[in-house]
């Protein structure tokens, strides 16, 4: 006896197809979402590197490291309090300075043309009053001048003879600094006021710090910008990362003051330990600040916040790259002055 043939009906096939679809047998495999693109270097880093290559070329060998070393110049640049893109006068001036003469003018006036003219007319003067502006003139090209608007803090600029005939030039305010006023006190949570024999100074606290008053070991009232939790900088010169903020304990005065840089505000991260701590590129760090500048053809190569920066010397209006321009450090040579005699351009910068 033959077995009975089983014939599938169309409705039965449809049911099987529906069941297979419900179980996912015919569904395409899910495609995972694409990973987010890695963060890129902030565009401002290349502009800062170019400006610092020029500043280095224009700074004599014996002057401060933060200007003769382009990598140190980048670190200094990133210590600016305002990371919003609105650079303070000196940095804004250096970005636009296309020659060494213009770089020198920026340094003389701290980026302030009026201060540059004031200091230029008074060679050898350390500070002076330009109306109610206290101008501290740079002693050389490697130091920047500074300007304090005394009227903006409720004071006036004055020159007073102190004991021994020494002339003191400072902001003065009998209201802010009456007789018996403490040498340092807080002006709200964001600034420290200092009074010395009537001389008045107001220093704003850096972002991430707050002014606190306390009594020191000798019983004197002191004030300083301190870190959250009233933590103080007890070790001068210390550097460390706190999340993505760089904390530096600056030297100066009777104690150290906390200086905080928000690396994220520049599109960077904080990395490193001790002296090597600093703001650096967000990914693929290529170098650290120990790398000495070197020449590669027409370009000077140095470490700019963890990225190998290669700046064409001719591209920023300078002479050829000199591998020993700053002793062990390379730098672009100063561009020859127009109509200069050949002998004046034979020696590399800084020699």
Q: State the shape.
A: globular
Q: Terminal Cα separation, in Å?
A: 114 Å
Q: Major β-sheet, in short?
A: 5 strands, antiparallel
Q: State the low-pLDDT regions, or none.
A: 5-22, 340-351
Task: Specify the structural class.
Answer: alpha+beta
Q: Evaluate the radius of gyration.
A: 30 Å
Mean pLDDT: 79
Pattern of helices and strands: HHHHHHHEEEEEEEEEEEEEEEEEEEE
Strand order of the largest sheet: 4-5-8-7-6
Describe the structure.
Helix content is 19%, strand content 28%. The protein is an alpha+beta fold. Strand 6 (184-186) and strand 7 form a beta hairpin. The relative contact order is 0.12. Residues 5-22 and 340-351 have low confidence and may be disordered.
Write the topology of this structure.
Elements: H1 10-22, H2 44-58, H3 65-68, H4 70-77, H5 89-96, H6 100-109, H7 113-120, E1 127-130, E2 133-136, E3 146-149, E4 156-161, E5 167-172, E6 184-186, E7 191-196, E8 199-204, E9 210-215, E10 221-226, E11 239-242, E12 245-250, E13 257-262, E14 269-271, E15 278-280, E16 294-296, E17 299-304, E18 307-312, E19 321-326, E20 329-332
Antiparallel strand pairs: 1-2, 2-3, 4-5, 5-8, 6-7, 7-8, 9-10, 11-12, 12-13, 14-15, 16-17, 17-18, 19-20
Helix pairs in contact: 2-4, 2-6, 6-7
Keywords, please?
351 residues, alpha+beta, 5-stranded antiparallel sheet, 7 helices, 19% helix, 28% strand, globular, disordered C terminus
């Amino acid at each position: 006896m033959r077995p009975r043939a089983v014939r599938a009906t169309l409705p039965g096939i449809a049911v099987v197809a529906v069941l297979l679809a419900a179980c996912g047998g015919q569904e395409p495999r899910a495609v995972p979402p694409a990973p987010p693109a890695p963060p890129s270097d902030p565009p401002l880093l290349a502009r800062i590197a170019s400006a610092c290559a020029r500043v280095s070329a224009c700074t004599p060998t014996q002057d401060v490291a933060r200007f003769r070393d382009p990598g140190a110049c980048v670190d200094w640049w990133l210590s600016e309090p305002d990371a919003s893109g609105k650079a303070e006068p000196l940095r804004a001036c250096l970005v636009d300075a296309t020659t060494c003469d213009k770089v020198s003018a920026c340094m003389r006036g701290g980026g302030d043309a009026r201060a540059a003219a004031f200091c230029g007319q008074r060679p050898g003067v350390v500070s002076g009053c330009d109306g109610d502006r206290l101008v501290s003139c740079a002693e050389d090209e490697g130091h920047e001048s500074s300007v304090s608007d005394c009227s903006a803090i409720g004071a006036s600029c004055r020159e007073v003879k102190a004991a021994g005939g020494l002339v003191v030039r400072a902001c003065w305010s009998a209201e802010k600094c009456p007789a018996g006023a403490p040498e340092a006190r807080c002006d709200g949570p964001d600034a420290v006021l200092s009074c010395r024999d009537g001389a008045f100074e107001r220093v704003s606290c850096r972002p991430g710090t707050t002014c606190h008053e306390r009594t020191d070991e000798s019983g004197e009232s002191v004030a300083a910008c301190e870190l959250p939790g009233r933590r103080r900088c007890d070790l001068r010169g210390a550097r460390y990362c706190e999340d993505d903020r760089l904390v530096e304990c600056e030297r100066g005065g009777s104690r150290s003051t906390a200086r905080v840089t928000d690396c994220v505000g520049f599109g960077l991260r904080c990395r490193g330990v001790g002296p090597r701590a600093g703001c650096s590129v967000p990914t693929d760090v290529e170098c650290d600040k120990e790398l000495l500048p070197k020449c590669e053809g027409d370009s000077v190569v140095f470490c700019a916040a963890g990225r190998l920066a290669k700046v064409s010397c001719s591209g920023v209006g300078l002479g050829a790259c000199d591998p020993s321009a700053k002793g062990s450090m390379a730098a672009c040579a100063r561009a020859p002055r127009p109509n200069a005699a050949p002998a004046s351009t034979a020696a590399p910068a800084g020699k």
